[in-house]
Amino acid sequence: MKKNILTLALCVLTAFAASAITKPGIEVLRDNGFKQVAGKRIGLITNPTGVDNNLKSTVDILHEAEGIELVALFGPEHGVRGNVHAGDEFGNMVDPATGVKVYSIYGKTKKPTPEMLEGIDALVYDIQDIGCRSFTFVSTLGLALEACAENDIELIVLDRPNPIGGNRVEGNIVEDGYFSFVSQFRIPYLYGLTPGEMARFLNGEKMVANGKKAKLTVVPLEGWTRDMTFEKTGMPWVLPSPHIPQPVTSYYYPATGILGELYFVSIGVGYTLPFQLICADWIDAEKFANNMNALNLPGVKCRPIHVKPFYSTGKGENLQGIQFYIEDIPESSITLLQFYAMQELAKLYPEKKIFDITTDKSRFDMFDKVCGSDQIRKLFSKNYQVSDMIDYWNKDVESFKKISSKYYLYK
Asked: Which residues does residue 75 pair with via DSSP β-bridges, in sequence order?
């Protein structure tokens, strides 16, 4: 019986892989005989999302490949095998499956050091990102590029899709004074590039290592176009973070994540719908949903919801508010949803205007860092109107699209 179940599971996985439209970079690399890494001693930056369409880890694929030597692994946030909780730092270790040394690059050290890179001919990067600046893997990619430039080591990016497509750009670029690990580079909040394209952009625009370019190779996707969201790729989704359990969560993370930095309301983290909710014990769900739906935001609907979070903001409390439903409409703004929600909450509950009543000003600092500027908060909080900040939020979109399009690998 057990053997039959295992056989069935293998058949399902094989059929799933065969139905995939898009090949990730690791499959393209394997199919071409590993020519980009042949004869090299390599280090690998990856996490559980680094898999082929049969869910085999890039770690194991490269470790087993003939003619190359996997000498080091580098663990970003959550670790190489996904055994570290979000935000937790961790130290160096040994990967039990392969015996390869694992260096932590999420802690005091976020960039591979010369000592870590010693004896490595090329550093390979394979992580599924979600296309949002504050999700830390884009910072990890940029710092890896910088380390390679500084140490004259090649960076090889095994490309993966941008799960929200390659045409969506939203938010202002990061300004001086607001750079951090959640806003590492002068890019918009949603940047519309794959990891490979982002590496080409950062390298080409001399945004790392004081303008010194790295030797960069991108192993591109096959079968992906800019209008494809992750669901259209046919690829299996491996959660890049415990709170991004499904591809669709990539849409909701930028819809509420900035607001979530204030710990003012629950955004569903700690419940079964991370980033998809805005709830509090002082909100009337029906009134809030009616106000939001009356805005007629394109591609977005809201429904009233009652929840009791299991952890995080509002743990164990009866909360109510709204659940977002975002349709796949390119014109709809994702990132502005949280600001429209803050606008409507200020109308319904003027005594609860977050920037007026909070005593924990330290949360403003993180809010500004995630926004890449303090101007968004300052403009919005004058009247709690999206119309006061929308022009500033969108001011860099077209210029970034024009510059970044030079580095596109896909149509």
From this structure: 104
Render pLDDT for 96-143 as a digit per residue (tens, 0 to 9): 989 999 999 998 899 999 999 999 999 999 999 999 999 999 999 999
Confidence at residue 146, expressed as pLDDT on a 0 to 100 scale:
97
Contact indicator for 247, 129 with CB cutoff of 8 Å: no
Tokens found for residue 255: 């819809």
Q: What is the DSSP string of 271-283?
A: BSSTTSEEEETT-
DSSP 233: G
Asked if 255 and 337 count as a contact pair (C-beta separation under 8 A), the reply is: yes
- Kindly report whether the global pTM for this prediction surpasses the value 0.85: yes
Of 199-213, 312-326, 349-363, the poorest mean pLDDT is in: 349-363
- Token pair 């973070």 is at which residue? 241
Beta-carbon neighbour count of residue 238 at 10 Å?
15
Report residue 399 as tokens. 């210029």
Residue 153 is encoded by which pair of tokens?
Answer: 């080591």
**Quick check: 235 and 176 in contact, CB under 8 A?**
no
CA-based angle 396:399:402, to the nearest 5?
Answer: 145
Residue 349's SS3 state is: coil
- Euclidean distance between CA atoms 41 and 22, whole angstroms: 28
